[in-house]
From TrEMBL:
Gene Ontology biological process: phosphorelay signal transduction system
Record protein name field: Histidine kinase domain-containing protein
Domain of life, source organism: Bacteria
Keywords: ATP-binding, Kinase, Nucleotide-binding, Transferase, Two-component regulatory system
The keyword Membrane appears for this protein: no
Family annotation (InterPro entries): HATPase_C_sf, HATPase_dom, His_kinase_dom
């Protein structure tokens, strides 16, 4: 582009001119759909200090002919209409961050929400009145916009009603939209109804200063269930309030229906039941077992209030539900998810079916078991606008700008959700135990046993019976072999993560010590690295059950964790060196099981921020018929009932990290070796040595018991 040159005449002054069509384009491009257009108009009612906003859909001859949005706010004077409402992109609201009349901070910051009416229809009538001015009526015919040569040619009729026709006693705005641009069908209308009614949080206490009501002269909205209709069909309820770096309120409640009469009672968990570490808001880091603290004030997010109800749609439980099942599932399909509200008004489009903003459904796909999905939850996140200015809404009104503050917000909500879900998992496991048939735990074996019983009873011919039973016995044996392989593979996979973590730490230290020419430390670390690799190799080798000393596997496991014990300042109390007790066990499987238990103990000691950390590994004959390795620590103890903890996908770890399979796989492997894994709930059941009792190493006591005799 050429800007220079010699001028023979003085430059002339020219101006930009704006095509009238720019108004049309702004309305079409900035407002995505009819729901958002209505939402923007409702926002204007909120900004005008309205207590109520009524959205009415009027039908003529079964066709929607008119949409009316009416509120009881402070209205607009003629000056406001001419200098603000008819001026596109005004920053009037931005200059007045707090409206004196009701103390609200405005929602419609961009000054473009009024263009949403153009998205809805071509004929607009606006009627408004303030307490100190006459009633004003404004008539806009958008079709005239296209024939106007300039924006000043686009005339709008303004009438002053000296005697009010609409607002005879109060103030407000009434907006009538006619000659609608969309042919609204039943499905679309019901969807818009859902969107409008979702503007107010279903978890509000009923004292909200702003309420949106949907009405119609047609029965189009009849039969639509609302939140109160379906709330009683939920089983699990959660509430959490976060401020700064801490959780300041928490309540989880399990409310079984009366029909679930096998359940003795419900359950309540509050903040007082948490260990201190759980009360700190955190995100999962990139490294194994790493957590990053979140500060809501630093991110300019302010206080977050989170509420959720969770349903159980598993067939065995859903059969007891006290609501019409098809209607409930449809409601959850349309309304499931977690929505965001700021000052009581919804922020779109969080909680919509195509916006899995918390990655809830993604996690369910990535990890089987232990997670919820959007179609079984209804939740809300409430923010205060004056505190959450770090969260900035996008121009197109579809959520917040995705910056650091936003990602911290998402992680904080995700953490609150994980705390509720882990409690729900415990109660769901209880229901599964009580109401699901035993075959759900061992489905193939249960089915085979049923078939064998039928064969024994029904088939009379001995030869036929013998032949059928032979095949069934072979299937049974093959299934057990496959299951054994899968359990071993799962165990190897679980321990691989542990070993890789140890190796990475050692290699990092080794590299550092070599760089500093520290020969002594380099040699020591090299030996530790060799021991870990040798120990993991022992886990992978196929081994048979045979009589052997148990101190052998204890030595291997302690060697594997030796560097980590130093790193986390954990002291080991053990009598393994002085013991010659023998039992029947498979070496590789036993090393894997003990590795898993010790790894869990290390995690909880570190997570609970204990200053003096101890793990006890104690060999004893006290459990009849077995030689037992008793593992305990001085951490927070077990947070789950033992019968729940050994089920798959059960964990008390924050943010639901890990697979939730560790204890389940360990229990299965102990059973395969004819041993047992038990939780000791009373420390006096074991005659612990003095150092264990003196240091309070009596939490999370697990006994790995191996048979004395071959079985």
């Amino acid at each position: 582009m050429y800007w220079g040159g010699n001028y023979t005449k003085s430059p002339m002054q020219v101006n930009f001119s704006i095509s009238p069509r720019i108004l049309s384009h702004l309305g079409e491009d900035l407002i995505k759909n009819e729901s958002i257009a209505l939402f923007e108009l409702i926002k204007n009612s909120y900004d005008a200090c309205a207590k109520h906003c009524i959205v009415d859909f009027h039908f003529e001859d079964l066709n929607l002919s008119r949409i009316t949005i009416e509120d009881d706010g402070f209205g607009m004077s003629r000056d406001t209409i001419e200098q603000v409402w008819l001026v596109v992109g005004t920053d009037n609201k931005k200059k007045n961050l707090i409206l004196n009349e009701c103390g609200r901070i405005p929602l419609g910051e961009k000054g473009i929400g009024r263009l949403g009416v153009h998205k809805l229809g071509d004929k607009i009538t606006l009627i408004t009145k303030t307490k100190d001015s006459t009633e004003i009526e404004l008539r806009i015919d958008w079709t005239k916009l296209y024939s106007a040569k300039s924006i000043t040619d686009f005339a709008i009729d303004l009438i002053e009603n000296t005697i009010p026709k609409t607002f005879t006693t109060g103030t407000g705005v009434k907006l009538i939209v006619e000659r609608l641009k969309t042919n609204w069908d039943r499905r679309q209308l019901r969807e818009v109804h859902r969107n409008i009614t979702s503007l107010n949080s279903p978890f509000s206490d009923g004292n909200d200063s702003f309420n949106v009501i949907v009405s119609s002269n047609n029965n189009i909205f009849e039969g639509l269930p609302d939140f109160e209709d379906i709330k009683s069909s939920a089983l699990y309820f959660g509430h959490c309030k976060m401020r700064g770096t801490e959780i300041v309120e928490f309540k989880y409640e399990f409310k079984p229906w009366e029909k679930l009469d096998k359940v003795d009672q419900g359950r309540i968990v509050t903040l007082q039941d948490f260990i201190e570490a759980d009360k700190t808001i955190k995100a999962v880091g990139d490294k194994r077992d790493e957590f990053i603290p979140i500060n809501l004030d630093k991110s300019k997010i302010g206080e977050i209030e989170f509420d959720i109800i969770i349903f159980d749609t598993d067939a065995q439980i859903f059969n007891f539900v006290n609501t019409e099942k098809t209607a409930l599932k449809k409601y959850l399909s349309e309304n499931g998810g977690i929505r965001v509200y700021r000052d009581g008004v919804r922020v779109y489009n969080y909680g919509e079916r195509d916006n899995d903003w918390l990655g809830i459904d993604l996690r369910r796909v990535q990890r089987v078991g232990g997670n919820v999905s959007n179609n079984i939850i209804v939740g809300s996140v409430r923010l205060k606008r004056a505190e959450s200015f770090g969260l900035v809404e996008k121009t197109n009104r579809e959520g917040f700008i995705e910056d650091d503050s936003y990602f911290n917000f998402v992680q904080a909500v995700d953490y609150a959700l994980s705390l509720v879900v882990r409690e729900r998992n415990q109660d769901k496991a209880l229901l599964s135990t009580l109401y699901k048939k035993h075959r759900a735990i061992e489905p193939v074996l249960s089915d085979l046993n049923d078939v064998i019983n039928i064969v024994e009873e029904k088939i009379r011919e001995p030869e036929v019976k013998q032949e059928v039973l032979k095949y069934l016995s072979r299937i049974n044996e093959q299934y057990r072999e496959v299951k054994d392989v899968l359990i071993k593979s799962a165990n190897a996979g679980l321990n691989l993560g542990i070993v890789i973590h140890e190796i990475e730490k050692l290699i990092s230290e080794l590299t550092d010590s070599i760089g500093k020419n520290d020969k002594e430390k380099s040699t020591r670390l090299s030996l530790s690295l060799e021991k870990i690799i040798r120990g993991y190799s022992a886990m992978l080798k196929k081994s048979d059950i045979k009589l052997n000393k148990l101190n052998k596997i204890i030595e291997i496991v302690l060697d594997n964790f030796s560097y980590r014990f130093i790193d986390h300042e954990i002291s080991i109390i053990s009598n393994w060196k002085d013991s010659n007790l023998e039992a029947y066990y498979a070496e590789s499987e036993s090393i894997s099981v003990l590795t898993n238990i010790v790894d869990n103990a290390i995690f909880w000691l570190k997570y609970a921020r204990k200053e003096d950390r101890f793990i006890s590994i104690y060999l004893t004959e006290e459990i009849s018929g077995f030689i037992s390795i008793i593992i305990s620590d001085n951490g927070p103890g077990f947070g789950l009932p033992f019968d729940v903890a050994i089920q798959p996908f059960q964990t008390k770890k924050p943010s639901n990290i890990g697979s939730g399979l560790g204890l389940h796989v360990a229990n299965e492997m102990m059973k395969a070796m004819k041993g047992q894994l038990t939780l000791i709930t009373d420390e006096n059941d074991i005659d612990f040595p003095d150092p264990v009792r003196k240091n309070g190493v009596n939490k999370a006591i697990i006994a790995l018991s191996f048979p004395k005799e071959k079985k």
